Amino acid sequence: MPEQTVGSEIERLIQLLSRLPGLGPRSARRASLHLIKHREKLLGPLAAAMAEAHDTVVICSKCGNVDTRDPCMICRDRQRDPSIICVVEEVGDLWALERSGALRCRYHVIGGTLSAIEGIRPEDLNITGLIERASQAEVKEVLLALNATVDGQTTAHYLTERLATAGVEVSRLAHGVPVGGELDYLDDGTLAAAVKSRRPF
């Protein structure tokens, strides 16, 4: 679509939407047109919700989850098992495991995986905080629920070595999670089965 055929405001909306995961330029144009067409029902409420999220959403200082309070709702929940910390790459993975209903434990979001190609080093991830939490007396197990990718497995091995001094059992999800698969795209049943079949790493 030539730039001169739309106003700069619309072009900016398209460009911003195209930066979202899964949305290319064409999908962003379609989404923009749909939002504009339904501006009263969608565009206005969406803009208000995004502004409110911008002003209120924070990163939990304990686990890395997102919430409107710090610590987050999960960290404040006293009904959860404090002896297990489930380690995930991203917040979306945490949400996927919560949807499965298979765990009632604490979480720790490390914020990605180690990657030589992308230049992501241990200090770029929230690993130090994990080691500190795992060293607490109440923690007995650290479950590595990382994606079954090459980088995910590399990160899992690195974390296992780092956690050796913490005196905790280190486990991982069973291989019911397909190699190359990402947690956020798996169905709840597969996730629940993988959690229940976890074994020492």
Write up this protein:
There is one protein chain. The protein is built from eight helices and seven strands; from the N terminus they run αααββαβαβαβαβαβ. The protein is an alpha/beta fold and 201 residues long. The chain has two domains: 3-56, Helicase, Ruva Protein, domain 3 (Orthogonal Bundle); 66-200, Dna Topoisomerase Vi A Subunit, Chain: A, domain 2 (3-Layer(aba) Sandwich). The strands form two sheets. The protein has a five-stranded mixed sheet with strand order 4-3-5-6-7. A hairpin with a 6-residue loop joins β1 (58-59) and β2. The longest helix has 18 residues, at 39-56.
Order of helices and strands: HHHEEHEHEHEHEHE
CATH class designation of the largest domain: Alpha Beta
Instruction: Quote the distance from N terminus to C terminus.
Output: 52 Å
Structural domain count: 2
Number of strands: 7
Q: Helix coverage percent of residues?
A: 40-55%
Range of strand content: 5-15%
Count of alpha/pi helices: 8
Average predicted confidence as pLDDT? 92
CATH architecture of the largest domain: 3-Layer(aba) Sandwich
CATH topology (fold) name of the largest domain: Dna Topoisomerase Vi A Subunit, Chain: A, domain 2
Q: What's the overall geometry?
A: elongated
The largest β sheet comes out as: 5 strands, mixed
Structural class: alpha/beta
Radius of gyration: 20 Å
Residue windows where pLDDT falls under 50 for at least 5 positions: none
Please write out the topology:
Layout: H1 8-17, H2 25-37, H3 39-56, E1 58-59, E2 66-67, H4 73-76, E3 81-88, H5 91-100, E4 105-109, H6 127-134, E5 141-144, H7 150-162, E6 169-172, H8 188-196, E7 199-200
Parallel strand pairs: 3-4, 3-5, 5-6
Antiparallel strand pairs: 1-2, 6-7
Helix pairs in contact: 1-2, 5-8
